[in-house]
Design a protein that fits this description.
mainly alpha
C-alpha cells in the first residue's frame, strides 16, 4: 500500500505495478516515491517495506511507558 491523494488513487486502483510506479514516482509523498524504486511489488518487497515502516513508526512514536 502506498499513500496517494484520493482522486489519483481512484484513477489508478486497478492498474498494474508498472503503471503505478510512474504515478508513485511523481507523488508529493516521500514514502510513496520510495515504492517506485522497487523493481517489482511482490510479497517480498511488501514485507521489506512493512519492516521499514515499522522501524520508522517506533522511532517516530516511541513507547512512553
Amino acid at each position: 500500500m502506498a499513500l496517494l491523494k484520493a482522486r489519483i488513487n481512484v484513477a489508478t486502483a486497478n492498474k498494474g505495478f508498472t503503471e503505478k510506479k510512474k504515478i508513485y514516482l511523481n507523488s508529493e509523498f516521500i514514502l510513496t516515491k520510495e515504492v517506485a524504486k522497487a523493481p517489482t511489488w511482490s510479497p517480498t518487497e511488501i514485507d521489506l517495506r512493512q519492516k521499514e515502516l515499522a522501524k520508522m513508526a517506533v522511532a517516530t512514536w516511541p513507547n512512553k511507558i
